[in-house]
UniProtKB/TrEMBL annotation:
One of its GO terms (cellular component) is glycine cleavage complex. The keyword Zinc-finger does not apply. Belongs to the GcvH family. PANTHER family: GLYCINE CLEAVAGE SYSTEM H PROTEIN, GLYCINE CLEAVAGE SYSTEM H PROTEIN-RELATED. This is Glycine cleavage system H protein. Its cofactor is (R)-lipoate. InterPro entries: 2-oxoA_DH_lipoyl-BS, Biotin_lipoyl, GCV_H, GCV_H/Fam206, GCV_H_sub, Single_hybrid_motif. The glycine cleavage system catalyzes the degradation of glycine. The H protein shuttles the methylamine group of glycine from the P protein to the T protein. It holds the Pfam family GCV_H.
Length: 126
């Protein structure tokens, strides 16, 4: 299983990559494998403040629909437009082209409570 050490993770299977004062957020390799073929990503929180652990969108797979939970509090600055036409990018490249949103970071201290790759790996049995 792919768990980049440079990322932080949540128990709800989201990852976060911090670049300066913005964060890229997506779902983990483990999550996309569990969901199966992703057919649609629905995110309607652009320009909205989302609190830590609140739902910022949903991801739809052939088998199920799952909520996407924000790892931090912040404003959704950008939604990955590539996912509109190619939701399968979440399956093929969950940590790269399959990112879902770019957010501002309202409370940097929240990052401290997220899981390192080793802890997330233990959580999912990797």
């Amino acid at each position: 299983m792919n768990l980049p050490a440079s990322l932080k993770y949540t128990k709800e299977h989201e990852w976060i990559r911090v670049e300066g004062d913005v964060a890229f957020i997506g779902i983990t390799d483990h999550a996309q494998k569990e969901l199966g073929d992703i057919v649609y990503v629905d995110i309607d929180t652009l320009d909205k403040e989302v609190a830590q652990n609140d739902v910022f969108g949903t991801v739809e797979a052939v088998k199920t629909v799952s909520d996407l939970f924000s790892p931090i509090t912040g404003t959704v600055l950008e939604i990955n437009e590539k996912l509109d036409g190619s939701p399968e990018l979440v399956n093929s490249d969950p940590y790269g082209d399959g990112w879902m949103v770019k957010m501002s970071i309202s409370n940097p201290a929240e990052l401290e409570g997220l899981l390192a790759s080793e802890a997330y790996g233990e959580l999912v049995g990797a």
